[in-house]
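Homework help board

Subject: predicted structure for assignment chain

Our instructor gave us this sequence and asked us to write out the predicted structure in token form, then describe one feature. I got the tokens but I'm not sure how to describe them. Can anyone check?
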Amino acid sequence: MNNSDIGKGLLAGLIAGAVATLAKTYWEENFPVRDEETDTPPAILAQRVSEKELTDDEEKTAETTIHWTFGTGAGAIYGMLAEESSLVSSGLGLPFGVVFWAMTHGSVVPALDLEPYPTEVEPQRYAVNEFAGHLVYGVTAEVVRRAVRGLM
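My token output:
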């Protein structure tokens, strides 16, 4: 694979990651992954790394920035990897969604004590919604990545 294709994959992945993050955000507005009083992992992380107590507005800004940067960045990496191997983009993005969930909310996020492990989430529908949201992210990322890449 040449550098031009990697660059195209990066750009297609950035766009796909942004759209997929939007889709996952919309999903979570309709299928909640936590109660409204519970801070999100990005909000908890922002508060932990801050040198001062964040105001509600500062916390919301940090939360949004982390959420969108992570989602868009994951899409960019996905786009580059898809250029290297068709296996990465197989299954219309569903395998990617599963792996993305497993590497975040299924393991690292709870290990960092940013939220409970999926088996400990109450009510359990929140954990199911989180998992399904990652499937939405994966499919959206792949559909958009293919469309954008096809235009290049």
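Reply (TA_rk): Your tokens look well-formed. For the description, you could write something like this. The CA atoms of residues 93 and 139 lie 4 Å apart. That's the kind of observation they're looking for.
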